Amino acid sequence: MSLEYAPRGLVGVLVPQANTTVEPEMQILMPRGISTITARLTSLEDTIEARLIDYYEGLENTLGQFANAPIDAIAVGCTGASYLVGRAREAELVKRWSNRAGVPAITTGLAVVEALNAIGARKVGFVSCYPPKLTEASAEYWSSHGFEVGHVVSAFNEQSDFHPIYSLRAQNASEALTHLRGPEHDAIVLLGTGMPTLRPIADVANDAGPLVLSCMLCLALCCVQQIGDQKILARNVRDWSNANEWSSRLKRFGV
Questions:
Q1: Coil, strand, or helix at residue 124?
Q2: How many Cβ atoms are within 10 Å of 89's Cβ, its own excluded?
Q3: What's the CA angle centered on 183, arms 182 and 184, to 5 degrees?
Q4: What is the pTM of this model?
Q5: Which residues pair with 214 in a beta bridge?
Q6: What structural domains and CATH numbers belong to the chain?
Q7: What's the order of all strands across the beta sheet hosting 148-154?
Q8: Of 26, 46, 101, 114, which is least surrounded by CB within 10 A?
Q9: How confident is the model at residue 160 (pLDDT cuts 50, 70, 90)?
């Protein structure tokens, strides 16, 4: 079924309840003809870790918010929960969500794994927007997928306006990124879906050094490739990392 504003495809995006970054970055990243609708992941738990796990355990019910909208892919815009539930449980959940929705589902964590594998990256540097405990869980997750965790630089700011991750600015990511641009990494990943990442990526596009990716960039790329029933290739990852397709939309967004 072709929709007026989504003739090429419609992505159902799951967004953590207070996240202010997923939706605008998806709008910027989606190519012409592909659109998104969103549902909110909610939880009454009072710690970041407990909320993240709760999001995943209740996500199958959250999919009901899409009702009978003709979505072509499910994008789970929450990375931290993948670290906490672990690789095996994540795989089980993704299979359940895909069966429930009747279309492929992918998490940001698995999207990053696909992109890194496509370019043959082994040693990866990370900019973490998380508190120390979640950063440690993140390192264990990437190691479980066969990557060597290189340098990890923190952009976490506990003294924030309303949330230590969601109130981060692109400048926080840019400043952390300056410490990771050496040749010792095969790629650099800006972690999380709450910290704005597109301006920092665009600012270093086509520079010498390893490719810079983010969880949101990889998630959007995977969804576009899934809708086209195409495998992610190294050239796709390089093109998106170099901001060739989406930088003009970033400028129109006023960023």
A1: strand
A2: 15
A3: 95
A4: 0.92
A5: 190
A6: 9-111+216-252 (3.40.50.12500), 113-215 (3.40.50.1860)
A7: 148-154, 123-128, 187-190, 211-214
A8: 46
A9: low
